[in-house]
Fold this sequence. Notes:
- This protein is of the alpha/beta class and 292 residues long.
- It has helices at 16-24, 67-79, 97-106, 125-138, 155-162, 183-198, 202-205, 232-239, 244-261, 281-286, and strands at residues 2-10, 42-47, 51-57, 85-91, 113-118, 144-146, 167-168, 208-217, 220-229, 264-273.
- Helices cover 36% and strands 24% of the residues.
Amino acid sequence: MRSGFIAILGKPNVGKSTLLNALLSKKVSIVTPRAQTTRDSIMGILTEKDYQMVFVDTPGIFFGKQRLDKIMRKSAFESARDVNLILYLIDASTRNIEDDIRIFDSIHSESPRVFVINKIDLIRPEKAMKLKEKLREFHPDTPIIEASFIENFGIKEIKEAALPYLEEGPFFFPEDSLTDKDKAYQAKEAIREVMLKFLRDEIPHQSAVFIESIKEKEGEITLNATIVTERDAHKGIVIGKGGEMIKKIRLGASKELARMWHLSVEMNLKVIVDPSWRDNPGKLSRYGYGES
């Protein structure tokens, strides 16, 4: 048996979570068209007959100044330490490859690396050639894989590229494991995903979701969750006129969780205002973004 860890890094919204879900043929990481959807590193576990690959989906790397931004960036960089392989994802349509090179060179890890150019189907062949030439100019020895995760193109090549870096030894997780995250985390992310779908850009990014309690009994899960906003105006938008928006969020998240868990889900959802929580270490830790 062989096993190993593969970190997935890149700028926001390049397809890291889409890749993880495609590799596993299961949804374990939320996906939206919004940047900064992923805030935590999450493991997706692919187990075959003779090997186990543990892929680590990471927050999109950008150089924001708020404490939450720094925690997300630190989480991504730390996920690249001591792994068997780093997959660095690039959006094929990027206009500034120098930003990717800056991030790539900021990864302090001795692990081998592979460039993965996602959304390759959206650009012309000559642009793809120029992009690859630019990458080879900076890092001539780093392999390059072309991919389109929506089309499942390149998934086989990514698995084949990772295989030589796995090490002999037992699996890290039981063979039926899919992710390292528990149901409370999955519930929090399901609520955030629905918020990102229904609300204006700034509101989900300035909000957090905190699971107060979760109980499972006789085929049903009951959970109490709190949405944390920074402003009274945002709280009003999340609740909506006559409570319509909070109802849409609750029903949408409950439906998604019931599909994932194959259980009945009863969700109680409330909204509070907690100004400047994104720059407060104690509050960040309480809402699940502690620097530890």
